[in-house]
Amino acid sequence: MANTPQSKKRARQLERRTEINKARRSRLRTFLRKVEEAIASGDQAKATEALRAAQPELDRGVTKGVLHKNTVARKMSRLSSRIKALAA
After folding, report:
1. Residue 73: count of CB within 10 angstroms of its CB
2. Is 86 left (phi over 0), alpha (psi -120 to 50) or beta?
3. Whole-structure pTM value
């Protein structure tokens, strides 16, 4: 348990940041789930639109420190290649 005033403050800050990051992560997962559902439905236009909506959210997750930039790049690449495969 935190004893010094500084460590107590850091613990309070950590709780706040955890809540904010949890909300951001949840929001990111929602956008990714919408893309996944669109891909599963087989509708390429709908999937492309969902990916276009998810991209700025994922980029925002990088700038806010929720996800690593390479993780987002990998996810975007894999999703876009799956959407392109729907055309064939």
Report:
1. 12
2. alpha
3. 0.86
**pLDDT (tens digit, 9 = 90+) per residue, 27-69?**
999 999 999 999 999 999 999 999 999 999 999 999 999 999 9
| Tokens 């940041």 -> residue | 17
> Quick check: 28 and 66 in contact, CB under 8 A?
yes
- Rg (C-alpha) for the chain, rounded Å, is 18
Closest by CA to 50, choosing from 86, 19, 14, is 86
Q: Which H or E element spans position 71?
A: helix 69-87
- For residue 66, CA distances in Å to 4, 30, 53, 62, 70 come to 28, 15, 18, 6, 12
**CB environment 19-57: b (16+ within 10 A), e (fewer):** eeeeebeeebeebbebbbebbeeeeeebbbebbeebbee
Amino acid at 26: S
